[in-house]
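Possible regression after last week's pipeline update?

I re-ran a chain I had predicted before the update to compare outputs. Posting the input and the new output here so someone can diff against the archived version. Not blocking, just want to make sure nothing changed silently.
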Amino acid sequence: MPTRSERWDHAVQLPLTLASIAFVAAYAWPIIDPGLGRGWSALCALVVWVTWGLLVVDLVVRLVLAPDRWLFLRHHPVDVAMVVLPILRPLQLLRLFTLLKSLNRLAGSSLRGRVGIYVAGSMTLIVFIAALAVLDAERGGSGPIQTFGDALWWALVTVATVGYGDAYPVTFEGRAVAVGLMLFGIGVLGVVTAGFASWLVERVDDLDEMENGVAATSADVEALRAEIAALRADLAARDRP
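New output (post-update):
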């Protein structure tokens, strides 16, 4: 029987996912469209703070339901960071971890499916959000990143660990985003390489098993033929007068 904490997690999974999607839209809109009206900007800011309030409520409830609260805090540092740190604008994007958690449920129990969904989903989210974050930090400064197209190009180049050098952040916040994106890109390349190597090893093992199975079947057939020939010879010898 599921515990109260597990029932709460299941109940709030969809609302938190929808709230995270609303947060992405509310956070991205004013950055992509700097000429947005004051009323719409205020609405986006309200949505951002409402989503933060939902994360605070979720953390408090789970903390109350946890059997050992200190153990819960030690094992969920990201959840605590999503509530404590996003009061600072550059760190508000930590709230998107709720979307990455939802990907885990969609993946099911298949390890390969889970890795594939994590890589594709997290890559798309992180690149898009990193582009928004660096544009928010760099726009109006002396650096080359001044439009969303520049920021998206920079994010793709950085996460792929290519680094052409035509677009780069110059502010502290932008460089902090760059460091996180580079580390994420290296991690994704490692996951993809490990996944491909695992698939290749499995294919080789499957081929070996098939070849061994065919060889064993051929040997069994030859043995049966030899036994049948021996039986026929024995019967023929007995039938002779």
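Follow-up from reviewer: compared with the archived run. Residues 1-107 form one domain. Marking as no regression found.
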